Amino acid sequence: MNMNKLHLFIVSFFIGSTMIFAQYTDVINSNKPGFSESPYSVGSGIYQFESTVFLRKNTITPTFSKPESLGIDLMFRTSLFSEKLELNAQLAYQQDKVAFKNIFSSHYFTSGLSSMTIGAKYLFYQQKYADKSKEVRSWKRRNAFDVKRLIPSVALYLGMNTDFVNDIHKTGSITPKVGVLLQHNLTNDFNVITNFYYDNIGSEFTEYSYIVTATQNFSNRWSAFFENQTVFQKYQNNINLGLGLAYLYSRNLQINASGRVLFEGESKGFYASLGVSYRINRHRDSYKELNDNGQEIKNTSPRKRGSFFGRFLNIFKKKQKGIRKKRSGIKGLFGKKKS
User: Which of 8, 69, 301, 305 sits 20 to 30 Å CA-CA off 204?
Assistant: First the structure.
């Protein structure tokens, strides 16, 4: 793809959390490689796939623990019914090393689904900002900080964790997951996303968590993030600190990588990932067709409105309508002469 053409339609580049001022964007809007989720949907007509291969290693702790995991995380996102509503499904398949440590240490390996969640999010509030480019009278006003940027866009997340997972990851039943998703676009190139989750509700594995992700865009293609996730569980708290990079290969393809340090109870370790996000773009901008009186034409198929034959038939009908008007005028003129 020609670099000059690519730069024309790339307004900004996003990683994990994306800086967007509308639901649909010309370039892919991926949540990866971060764990946080933007309140914005991918937009109508978008079918997006986000994949990550990951390796997680921790120190072995007394009794039972999972010191090592190798797997793949997959997520599908699309928008239906409304630009503000996104439906998504996420699952992870991994091989786990299960260790037992008492006087002696032993371990075994098992593999299967570790999670499978179906969810949806809805954007309740989208913050809008002043267009400073139109301010030409005052340099100070043009470069002043817009206090509206301190007010975030807000979405609500609702999901269900299925129990079709490996035995070591089972919670015993299908459990709900709810969350609040916030995004502050502090500048055109820097944003902060904050997520709050209440997960595995009603089970013995209920947990509360928050994620804070700061993202900086360096160019139309490169971006980086820093992230903190803290999970509060019944018997221990887990914390991870992560850094990541993403590269925009094309407007529909993103490549990303991340690394994290883990503090899970008494255990310490690291997490590394490499991922690819790809979207199928079938988005069409909505529009209204008006008749000769400026009124909206309803119950008309979009395909017929936009097709070549539809336009040709409209032109033909207008010509026929003009011919009928001319004929009626000629008949009226002859009538006057006859009288």
Answer: 69
